[in-house]
């Protein structure tokens, strides 16, 4: 069993020098949380340039679904790179793109079949979904949710409502987008309590929003994360997505599920919407789809993807090497990694709930599969956020050899690789508990 090994002060001398050069030549817009300079990685373990070894509970921000450098994914990449690296699927045909589209359509399992548009990232998948929604419906308005993160390109950023600084100085945005409250039962936006609220977050869209502000017949689509990611790993109540789907169907509005972080087995299902019994009209996927290779995809009901040739395209989208990596990834997910995510997720949540008994600062433990959040608070009664404490814990865990990230105002996200073992979960829990003891007392 491996264990974290910190040989040098952090950052070490090699890392410090690279960070110095980075500060001179790389965009300062990147958000580096701690001074980790990675040399190599395998499975759930990361080695930095100074030989320090870390247990990774971030998986490249939920990207490395099959762990770092899974041998079957690496072999698929090597094999395809020796045959064809690029030919642009926008203008030509090649088998990896076609085979993957068929596979994605099968696992999406949409009524009447599905079709796939390829991009290079989650933001591009969202942009494509936004454009297709307007094209197909001939409507202009969109609805998204407070706390949502859909990407940083202009259309995706217009749908995003996660942190104000992400949008600072970029106005005006794409017009016709209205944000509404997301059902965060730990901090109910309506001051209610589930299930007594009667799905108030959905009702609010119909009345007062549709009654007073936006004619529903002008709304093209509702964009929603099955579980909010950047917004704080917020799991909505069981009936929310079902009621939202009913509302969308009532007014002929398309339901777009942003499965970029929740999809590809992360929550113990291939797609998180499966937990809620809802079939979206369109899905945006990326992150875990190709185990680290750049790939995004929009999957839409075949009847909805009715745009004409040239309506939208991407030079690099559906790159053959990325497609082969995705095919290998899906094989591994279906061969047992989705099940492992569900099992290890239960272990992780149970372990965190046990730790929660000893630390008042752990206000809420929530999640599905290996998408788990711990919301830190100053007081469990008032539920006041504790962002400074969150930062101290993430930094302290890093110096103890555990890689974590935050989300929301004061939530720590746990999103390790779907290959993670029971022993590695226990190691991470032990480091996290010891970190809490040092930082929170």
Principal-axis shape: globular
Proportion of residues in helical segments: 25-40%
Share in β-strands: 15-25%
What is the CATH architecture annotation of the largest domain? 3-Layer(aba) Sandwich
Written overview of the protein:
By secondary structure, the chain is an alpha/beta fold. The chain folds into 2 domains: 35-70 and 336-440, Alpha-Beta Complex (Aspartate Aminotransferase, domain 1), CATH 3.90.1150.10; 73-332, Aspartate Aminotransferase, domain 2. The chain is built from 11 helices and 16 strands. The strands form 3 sheets. Strands 4-10-9-8-7-5-6 form a 7-stranded mixed beta sheet, sandwiched between helices. Strands 11, 12, 13, 15 and 16 form a 5-stranded antiparallel beta sheet that branches. Strands 1-2-3-14 form a 4-stranded mixed beta sheet. The longest helix is centred in the C-terminal third of the chain and has 37 residues, at 320-356. The mean pLDDT is 97.
């Amino acid at each position: 069993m491996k264990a974290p090994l910190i040989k040098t002060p952090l950052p070490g001398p090699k890392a410090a020098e690279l960070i110095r050069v980075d500060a001179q030549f790389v965009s300062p817009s990147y958000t580096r949380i701690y001074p980790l300079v990675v040399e190599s990685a395998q499975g759930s373990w990361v080695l930095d340039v100074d030989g320090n070894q870390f247990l990774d509970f971030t998986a490249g921000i939920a990207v490395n679904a099959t762990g770092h450098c899974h041998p079957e994914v690496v072999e698929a990449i090597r094999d395809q790179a020796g045959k064809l690296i690029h030919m642009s699927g926008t203008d030509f045909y090649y088998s990896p793109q076609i085979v993957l589209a068929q596979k994605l359509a099968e696992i999406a399992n949409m009524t009447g079949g599905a079709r796939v548009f390829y991009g290079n990232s989650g933001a591009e998948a969202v942009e494509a979904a936004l454009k297709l929604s307007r094209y197909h419906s001939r409507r202009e308005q969109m609805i998204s949710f407070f706390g949502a993160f859909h990407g940083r390109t202009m259309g995706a950023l217009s749908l995003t409502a996660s942190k104000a600084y992400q949008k600072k100085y970029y106005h005006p945005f794409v017009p016709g987008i209205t944000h509404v409250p997301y059902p965060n039962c730990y901090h109910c936006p309506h001051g209610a309590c589930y299930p007594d609220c009667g799905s108030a977050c959905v009702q609010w869209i119909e009345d007062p929003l549709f009654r007073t502000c936006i004619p529903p017949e002008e709304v093209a689509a509702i964009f929603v994360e099955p579980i909010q990611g950047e917004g704080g790993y917020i799991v909505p109540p069981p009936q929310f997505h079902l009621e939202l789907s009913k509302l969308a169907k009532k007014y002929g509005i398309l339901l777009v599920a942003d499965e970029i972080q929740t999809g590809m087995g992360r929550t113990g299902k291939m797609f998180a919407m499966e937990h809620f019994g809802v079939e979206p009209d369109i899905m945006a996927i990326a992150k875990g789809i190709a185990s680290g290779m750049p790939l995004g995809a929009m999957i839409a009901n075949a009847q909805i993807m009715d745009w004409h040739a040239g309506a939208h395209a991407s030079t690099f989208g559906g790159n053959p090497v990325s497609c082969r990596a995705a095919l290998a990834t899906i094989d591994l997910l279906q061969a047992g990694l989705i099940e492992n995510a569900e099992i290890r997720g239960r272990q992780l949540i149970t372990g965190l709930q046990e730790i929660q008994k000893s630390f008042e600062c752990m206000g809420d433990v929530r999640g599905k599969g290996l998408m788990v959040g711990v919301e830190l608070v100053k007081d469990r009664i008032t539920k006041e956020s504790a962002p400074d404490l969150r930062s101290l814990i993430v930094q302290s865990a890093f110096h103890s050899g555990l890689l974590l990230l935050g989300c929301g105002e004061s939530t720590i996200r746990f999103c390790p690789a779907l290959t993670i073992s029971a022993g590695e979960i226990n190691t991470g829990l032990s480091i996290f508990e010891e970190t809490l003891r040092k930082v929170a007392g």
